[in-house]
Amino acid sequence: MLYLVGLGLGDAKDITVKGLEAVRRCRRVYLEAYTSVLTVGKEALEEFYGKELILADREMVEQEADTLLKEADVCDVAFLVVGDPFGATTHSDLVLRAVKLGIPYKVIHNASIMNAVGCCGLQLYSFGETVSIVFWTDTWKPESFFDKIEKNRRSGMHTLCLLDIKVKEQSLENLMKGRKIYEPPRYMSVNQAAEQLLAIIQNRRLQGEKPETTENTICVGLARVGAPDEKIAAGTLQQMSSVELGGPLHSLIVTGTMHPLELEMLKLFSVDSSSFENNACQRTT
Amino acid sequence: MLYLVGLGLGDAKDITVKGLEAVRRCRRVYLEAYTSVLTVGKEALEEFYGKELILADREMVEQEADTLLKEADVCDVAFLVVGDPFGATTHSDLVLRAVKLGIPYKVIHNASIMNAVGCCGLQLYSFGETVSIVFWTDTWKPESFFDKIEKNRRSGMHTLCLLDIKVKEQSLENLMKGRKIYEPPRYMSVNQAAEQLLAIIQNRRLQGEKPETTENTICVGLARVGAPDEKIAAGTLQQMSSVELGGPLHSLIVTGTMHPLELEMLKLFSVDSSSFENNACQRTT
């Protein structure tokens, strides 16, 4: 049996009882290590689970799936994923491969950032399409996520922005020379995401557009959701560019139209309640 | 401390280790019993948690929140919610009440239907606004959810349809006479939801419209997601009106444009692969 086990978002104890029992039963346990991270490292998980973990990077999952699935028809193998196994990244490839090999699989769900963001008080069913904001480089500054945010806002919907993670990236030089030397991991902060959005708004104005999303749009910055040191800050997009949220992982929400109850919840996390009052777009029903 | 603890979707063991530790520490433990249900009853939970649970219906949470929060500033109280505490229903009211009373609170997240639906292979970030499909009565047949589905489909987005739950409903007669006699709980099935959607499509055609969503639109019926007897069926909307999924809870997804990988995953659950091929709208990128 292949178990796809969600680890939740905080630390070792965010695994479900069912998940923990499965992990302890398995012969091999892989930890997916490229789409998200917990606030604790591999060692803390190993100690709590009482199992050695094999780190599975993207290369391994994509290119060595058969190694990963070896003998999973006769023994139990677990694939651990931060959040939910079908959260921000689906692991459909692995499931399809298992099915083709005749290996049964079971999903053990957990919270993912896709539903845990509800803790800020915005209603999950008022979110439109989720977007990913990628790190800009000197030569590559995509803006397509902004168009999706605009579309959601025009429909009154909130937008969850998942922020870029760069793990096991090679510098151009190392890549060209075929050297497997990796840069330190980078996690986009709410500040960086807000700065990129502000830059796009400026660009659009230079092009004569009048974006729905402005410096004054109410946003929510979230850091380490589900962890003991979780931090949530609500304020204008401008304020998000300088708010202090600490270490990764960060997420950003650009709000649409808010229900009064949503607004009241957000105020619990406001960086500055006065500017907040004037800039929120409220639903009157 | 007020703990808002998500129970996940299946049975007693879907609670997280952190959640279980919190529950066992609490002086009073309430079980929210009006927005969702697990596949096991209160007694099974009590036995596993080693705690007596107090059932909290909507009336109690809305009208007797202060009783619920009594002494939560000096002792630990838990409020258990099937799924995630901020999933389909947010419990913002309770949180705001606690904050006003100076009671600290902590959220222990878990999977909710809002993210667990990813198990069918459709990507969560390709979902638009979530809708609720309510039971029609002889005199009340709202169609507003259909317009949201149409809007999502026009943008290529999938729609998660949460299906109605009627718990502790009174008959009109008992309500008028002030008798607190309740009807048996009712849970909308995928069949019923599909029938209502098909009826709306007919209505719209009679009005001269040409709906995006038709009898042949690929849909996914999900039952008891996360439980050992979970069932997923993918097929046309017409097929959803007769597919056999067993007991509650059910959810329905109306697909938008699909990525080839999403389509390949859905085929694992197809009721009839031939009709499937012709009716899916694929994304070519």
UniProtKB/TrEMBL annotation, chains A, B:
EC number of the protein? 2.1.1.314
Any one of the GO BP annotations? methylation
Query: What Gene3D superfamilies does this protein map onto?
Result: Cobalt-precorrin-4 Transmethylase, Domain 1, Methyltransferase, Cobalt-precorrin-4 Transmethylase, Domain 2
Annotated binding of S-adenosyl-L-methionine, by residue: 9, 84, 87, 112-113, 163, 225, 250
Asked if the keyword Cytoplasm belongs to this entry, the reply reads no
- Report the pathway entry: Protein modification; peptidyl-diphthamide biosynthesis
Q: Write down the CDD domains for this protein, in alphabetical order.
A: DHP5_DphB
Q: Name one GO molecular function term.
A: diphthine methyl ester synthase activity
- Tell me where in this chain the Tetrapyrrole methylase domain is found: 1-239
Q: Does the keyword Methyltransferase apply?
A: yes
Protein keywords: Methyltransferase, S-adenosyl-L-methionine, Transferase
Instruction: Note one Pfam family from the annotation.
Output: TP_methylase
- PANTHER family noted in UniProt: DIPHTHINE METHYL ESTER SYNTHASE, DIPHTHINE SYNTHASE
Q: Which family does it belong to?
A: Belongs to the diphthine synthase family.
Job description of the protein: S-adenosyl-L-methionine-dependent methyltransferase that catalyzes four methylations of the modified target histidine residue in translation elongation factor 2 (EF-2), to form an intermediate called diphthine methyl ester. The four successive methylation reactions represent the second step of diphthamide biosynthesis.
This chain's protein is named diphthine methyl ester synthase
